[in-house]
Amino acid sequence: MMMILLVCSIILITTLFLQNRSTGKKSNAPKSPPRFPLIGNLHQLGRHPHRSLCSLSHRYRPLMLLHFGRVPVLVVSSADAARDVLKTHDRVFASRPWTKITEKLLYNGRDVTSVPYGEYWRQMKSVCVVHLLSNKMVRSFRDVREEEISLMIENIRKSSSLPLNLSKLLSSLTNDVICRVALGKKYGCETDFKELTERFSRLLGTFSVGTYVPWLAWIDWIRGLDSQLKKTGNDFDEFLEKVLDDHVDGDRDGTDFVDVLLTIQRDKSVGFQLDRLSIKAIISDVFVGATDTSYTLMEWVMTELLRHRECLNKLQEEVRTICKGRSSVLEEDIQDMKYLKAVIKETLRLHPPLPLMAPHESTHDVRLREYDIPAGTQVLIKFRPERHLNSSVDFRGQDFELIPFGAGRRICPAISFAVVLNEVVLPVESTEDQTNVAESTGLAIHRMFPLYAIASSTT
Length: 459
Known about the structure:
This protein has a single domain (29-455), classed as CATH 1.10.630.10. The protein has 17 helices and nine strands. It has helices at residues 2-24, 49-60, 79-88, 100-105, 119-132, 135-140, 142-158, 166-183, 191-204, 209-212, 218-222, 225-249, 257-267, 276-307, 309-323, 338-350, 415-422; strands at 63-68, 71-76, 164-165, 360-361, 366-368, 371-373, 378-381, 428-429, 452-455. Residues 1-25 and 424-439 have low confidence and may be disordered. Residues 1-24 form the signal peptide.
């Protein structure tokens, strides 16, 4: 016992000595809240890190430097500072940090979202943007979206005056659309598949202590994170292998994402070899990311509309006016629905599905405003719809007041895909107080409790 205490004391004293030496050097770093030795500011994150960081940033904005264990983390909390990071110095901050989570679940970071900046990322992004997520490709799946929305509306009508679990309904809709578009058929009715995707998404949003404090990596093992990552990664890989084998062996002429990627691999039409691991990594990105974030946004839209009945009434009136008696909304109607677009913008402002976005990482030292930011620094970028009606601010990465999909080189390539799927209107009427806005944890920030409502006719 005495030997263990002696070793721990030596480690602590050495760390404090090195820390004091490093802070004694001339440095012009952004302001930081006080931190503990070894763990830095990790103790200040709390259950909802985005809320904790928001509270801290009020005192240290617009740039705040934290330390997650050994890793410096720059928190950016103003539009101007975000513009400096994601536009002025976009190339410097275009990389992604390594994490144990992405290594185990996303094929060692071979996907588009988490791969470090470089030639491989450029190749994978070009495949996604040109072949999977182009406007032409998004339009080609219109029938899929309309069919699934019609099925959802039919289920709503059958519910009569019974309370509807809107969270479950919207989750199933998103899952079915993404499955058909990406994989060629629906898997939503399979209980094991639902459980697997929920587990996968939850783990992607889990904090790994060992990533930031390597000597505490045993904590991840003790709490079961390592075993969960291994099992979930293997289970999801087994599922994707079956999907790929079905596409290769089947006699079909499909145009889903897997078909497109296998055609590129076979024809070698993109100037580089697209291997099987890369295909599975891309599908993981598109499927898990699009499903979780799209459903989350729709869920929060409905939550805010039910909390603000005057806004719901305005939106229903806009729908009735533009649809002119039709019982369904067509995709070409959406361009005229200015209030709907304002509702979506306001919801993205209040409840961005990924409130901290995926972390960026600096590839070399850079001068940011009056501060010196060293290489290897991670960067985190932090209901009244009428505010957006006469505003030119958009969420496609050019206006840094509203960047839920990111900006710069690492902007989400699936913006058009996600927006089209989210521009859906449900005329619903709240029952009792089911609009609690407590948040869950995970990859995307869902409601903690399911959203229930009763559907009512608008005629």
